[in-house]
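Retry 2 of 3 after timeout on previous attempt. Resubmitting structure tokens to design endpoint.
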């Protein structure tokens, strides 16, 4: 029995996570799922965006599935993003986003790329200081972080049968930091059995649109990965289709790429596919690859039968989609 924490969060988080939990319950009896609180709702209920009880539960769990949280709209100097806190607390250094077109009628290009992004440093150190006339932001790139993100990307490519890997950087401008990342990449990929190549981040953004079929895996630094993965998700139909994982040494947190979508929250029309696929990634991480594969294979089949929420051109509510999808899944 594996223990997983379920954090619904805010906005559409609870709506899509309930669908994902229904799917996980259906496919596996080997999961002990325990609920935990986080986000704005948690702040209202417990006075904390990230209660200590949640951190304690996560420490006892093998993994977590998380929906989304709404950040405060007014400036609060004491606010610290609970997600960033978790990334730090559990050293979730690898952000992994598989982006795949799930049906020919959805999205713009034929894409199946794995984006592996360094999650702990780069531009997102949060270290900014005011100087006369402006602000200086510190950007950190360490050898250790470069090595472990490249190694993780190589491991994932091998596990998924991807033959090539592209290092995405901006070493023509950031010669020392990105130059080092590129060098480390070629050192590590040399004996991996994978074909290694590199692209400047601007060329990589264009390649996703112009040569989508030849992109198998991007390994990159924080900011570049953030932007490229949203671009890639848009190319395959939008954020409702894009799952993700934040992976550390002994723990991982899985979440749909989208946010809490306050504009549609409570209307029951959110697309739960990204959350369901995040659940499948979690199963694969827990060693239940064949169950993950069934969940993934049933999505294009359901879409092909017109089982779709409005963002995918359909008319079903989140719960109607889930019911229809589970029927399709039962045939796999
Ligand atoms: P947040 O501030 O929490 O990030 P947001 O609205 O700025 O929220 P997203 O939640 O990522 O950002 O949503 C961006 C747009 O995509 C919104 O218009 C939203 O309705 C739409 N969207 C996001 N996720 C889904 C989904 N699962 N199903 C349907 N539409 C979605």
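Retry 2 succeeded. Sequence:
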């Amino acid at each position: 029995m594996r223990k997983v924490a379920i954090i619904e969060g805010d906005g559409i988080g609870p709506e899509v996570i309930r669908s994902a939990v229904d799917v996980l319950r259906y496919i596996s009896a080997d999961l002990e799922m325990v609920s935990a609180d986080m986000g704005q709702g948690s702040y209202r209920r417990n006075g904390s965006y990230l209660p200590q009880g949640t951190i304690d539960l996560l420490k006892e769990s093998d993994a977590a599935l998380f929906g989304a949280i709404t950040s405060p709209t007014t400036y609060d100097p004491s606010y610290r993003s609970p997600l960033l806190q978790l990334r730090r607390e559990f050293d979730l250094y690898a952000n992994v986003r598989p982006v795949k077109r799930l049906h020919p009628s959805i999205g713009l290009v034929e894409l199946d790329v794995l984006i592996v992004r360094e999650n702990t440093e780069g531009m997102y150190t949060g270290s900014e200081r005011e100087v006369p006339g402006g602000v200086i932001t510190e950007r950190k790139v360490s050898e250790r972080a470069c090595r472990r993100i490249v190694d993780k990307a190589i491991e994932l490519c091998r596990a998924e049968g991807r033959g090539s890997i592209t290092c995405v950087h901006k070493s023509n401008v950031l010669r020392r930091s990105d130059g080092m990342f590129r060098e480390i990449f070629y050192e590590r990929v040399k004996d991996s059995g994978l074909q290694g190549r590199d692209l400047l981040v601007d060329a990589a953004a264009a390649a996703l649109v112009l040569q989508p079929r030849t992109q198998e895996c991007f390994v990159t630094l924080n900011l570049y990965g953030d932007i490229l993965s949203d671009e890639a998700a848009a190319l395959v139909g939008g954020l409702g289709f894009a799952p993700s994982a934040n992976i550390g040494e002994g723990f991982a947190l899985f979440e749909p790429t989208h946010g809490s979508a306050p504009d549609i929250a409570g209307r029951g029309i959110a697309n739960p596919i990204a959350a369901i696929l995040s659940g499948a990634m979690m199963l694969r991480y827990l060693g239940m690859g064949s169950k993950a594969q069934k969940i993934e294979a049933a999505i294009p089949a359901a879409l092909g039968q017109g089982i779709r929420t409005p963002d995918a051109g359909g008319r079903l509510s989140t719960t109607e989609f889930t019911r229809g999808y589970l029927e399709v899944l039962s045939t796999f």
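Attempt log closed. The pocket of adenosine-5'-triphosphate is lined by residues 11-12, 16, 68, 70, 239-240, 258-264, 270-271, 274, 311 (CB under 6 Å).
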